[in-house]
Amino acid sequence: MSKFIKVTIDDSKCLGTADCGGCIKVCPVNVFQHPPQGTSSAPDKEVPAVVEENQDECTLCDLCLQECNPRAILIKKLYEP
Ligand code: SF4
Ligand code: SF4
């Protein structure tokens, strides 16, 4: 469980790794990765998995947000009200 940052992907908005996968490419601390085969959170596309233990390494660089055209990524700071 992350303490400081919670990253989530709206799988209904995500384009999937075959058509996009931008977040996996740009994140400098590997918050996103290809999910193990058969574990995508959507049945019709491969939605990136959020690596639980890497979330707190997030530098808030916003690269993933800039990359994500459908605005599927939400980054929440858990230390702010
Ligand atoms: S950048 Fe956005 S649309 Fe592209 S794979 Fe990541 S979450 Fe999905
Ligand atoms: S804001 Fe930067 S460090 Fe944080 S998840 Fe997105 S790309 Fe990774």
| Shape category | globular
Low-confidence stretches: none
Distance between the termini: 18 Å
Rounded average pLDDT: 96
What this model shows, in words?
- With 81 residues, this protein is an alpha+beta fold.
- It has one domain (5-77): 2-Layer Sandwich (Alpha-Beta Plaits).
- The protein is 12% helix and 17% strand.
- The protein contains 2 helices and 4 strands.
- The strands form 2 sheets. A two-stranded antiparallel ribbon has the order 1-4.
- The radius of gyration is 12 Å and the shape is globular.
- The two termini are 18 Å apart.
- The structure holds iron/sulfur cluster (2 copies).
Keyword list:
12% helix, two-stranded antiparallel ribbon, 81 residues
Topology:
Elements lengths: L4 E5 L12 H5 L5 E2 L15 E2 L12 H5 L5 E5 L4
The structure holds iron/sulfur cluster (SF4) (2 copies).
Summarize the structure in short.
With about 80 residues, the chain is α+β, with helices and mostly antiparallel strands.
